[in-house]
Amino acid sequence: MLKHGLLEGKKGIIFGALNEHSLAWAVASQCAAEGAKIVLTNAPIALRWGPLQELADSIGAPVIPADATRPEDLEFLFTESMNKLGGKIDFILHAVAMSQNLRRGRSYEDISYNYFQQTLDISALSFHKLLQTAYKLDAVAEYGSIVALSYIASQRAFQGYNDMADAKALLESIARNFGLIYGREKHVRINTVSQSPTFTTAGGSINYFERFYTIADHTSPLGNASAQDCANICVMLFSDYTRKITMQTIYHDGGFSATGIQVSSDKPWNKE
Ligand SMILES: NC(=O)c1ccc[n+]([C@@H]2O[C@H](COP(=O)([O-])OP(=O)(O)OC[C@H]3O[C@@H](n4cnc5c(N)ncnc54)[C@H](O)[C@@H]3O)[C@@H](O)[C@H]2O)c1
To answer: How many Å lie between the centroid of ligand 1 and the Cα of residue 122?
Structure first.
C-alpha cells in the first residue's frame, strides 16, 4: 500500500463499502493510509448484515447509516459528518449501485419497470440527491472533490449489463451537469471513474461477469485495474494535485476503452 500523506488533514465521506471485496472498502483504507479522517456510510440493511464495523474499527472511522435514495438520511449524514469530523467535507466517494433486474435475472428485453426505476434511483439519482443535499447545506469545502464510480457500458453496449448501463449513463451526465454549477459557484470538483470489471458483490450480480472480466483483461494493454488501483486513482482525485479536473469521466481500465483489435500472439483469440 502506497503512503504519501496526500490526504493529510482532509475529511471525507465514503459510501458503499459492503465487505472487503467492495471498491469502496479499498478506497476507504487507502484514504486513511494517506492521512484522511473518514466517515463510512451505507444503507441500514447493509450495515446490519455486512462487516463494515470491522473496517471502521481498523481505520477509526465513525459509521453513519444512510439510504442514499432518501434526502432526509443524506441531510442527517452530512450534518453529523461535519460534527464528527470537525468541519466541512473535502472529499466524497459515491460507490452505490443495485439492480433488481440483474439480481433476478430479468433480461433487458423483458425488464420490470418497477425494478428499472429502483435501479435508476439507487444507482444514479442518489448521486444527484447527494450533490444537491451537500450543495444546499454548503457541506463541501472549497476545491473539494466528489467522485462516483462508473462503467463503460454507459457509452457502449455490453450485453448482460442490463438497466445498469442506463443508470451509468445518467450518473455520468449528472456529474457533468452538477459539476458545472458546483464548480463555478463553490469550486467543487465532480468526476466519475470508469473502472475495469472487478470481482465484488455488485459485480457478481452481472450475467456472465467472468467473461466481462476476462475479455477486458485480455483486451487492455495494461490488464484490468484492480480494487487497489481504483483506490489509488480515487486518492489522486481527492488530493490537491487534481484541482482543475472536473466534469470528466476518467477511464481507469488499463487502456480497454481505447483499444480496437490486438494481433499479438499471446492473446487467446490469436492462437494459430
Ligand atoms: N465491480 C465492478 O466490476 C465495477 C466496475 C465499474 C464500476 N463499479 C461500480 O462501483 C460501485 C461500487 O460497487 P462494487 O462493485 O464495489 O460492489 P458492492 O456491492 O461492494 O458495492 C455496492 C454498494 O452499494 C450499496 N447500496 C445499495 N443500495 C444502497 C442504498 N439505497 N443506499 C446506500 N447504499 C446502497 C451496497 O450496500 C453496497 O455497499 C458501484 O457504483 C458499481 O456500479 C463496479
So the answer is: 10
